[in-house]
């Protein structure tokens, strides 16, 4: 029986997250097929954490910029 492996492209995702003891978002890079799998992988590894933002990028600076831009827009509404 031949073992066939699925071709998978892993993409970089930056997850901004908080914990019970740290409410300022910290960042981590996770490689996954999509954002749902990235978040599930993170939550599995860090069950006490809460994901507050996820974006497909390899740049932590870009992720924080997008997060703060969206937060400013939501705050203005």
Description:
There is one protein chain. The protein has 77 residues and is of the alpha+beta class. The chain has one domain (11-76): Ubiquitin-like (UB roll) (Roll), CATH 3.10.20. Helices cover 36% and strands 36% of the residues. It has helices at residues 35-45, 60-76; strands spanning 11-19, 22-32, 49-56. Strands 2-1-3 form a 3-stranded antiparallel beta sheet, sandwiched between helices. The mean pLDDT is 89.
| Ends apart, CA distance between termini | 59 Å
Radius of gyration (CA) equals: 15 Å
Overall number of structural domains:
1
Number-wise, the strands total: 3
Strand content: 35-45%
What would the keywords be for this entry?
single chain, 77 residues, alpha+beta, Ubiquitin-like (UB roll), 3-stranded antiparallel sheet, 2 helices, 36% helix, 36% strand, globular
Brief write-up:
The protein has 77 residues and is α+β, with helices and mostly antiparallel strands.
SSE layout and pairing:
Elements: E1 11-19, E2 22-32, H1 35-45, E3 49-56, H2 60-76
Antiparallel strand pairs: 1-2, 1-3
């Amino acid at each position: 029986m031949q073992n066939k492996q699925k071709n998978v492209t892993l993409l970089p995702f930056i997850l901004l997250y908080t914990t019970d003891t740290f409410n300022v978002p910290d960042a981590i890079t996770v490689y996954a097929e999509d954002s749902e799998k990235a978040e599930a992988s993170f939550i599995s590894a860090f069950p006490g954490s809460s994901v507050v933002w996820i974006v497909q990028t390899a740049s932590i600076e870009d992720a924080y910029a997008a997060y703060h831009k969206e937060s400013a827009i939501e705050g203005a509404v």
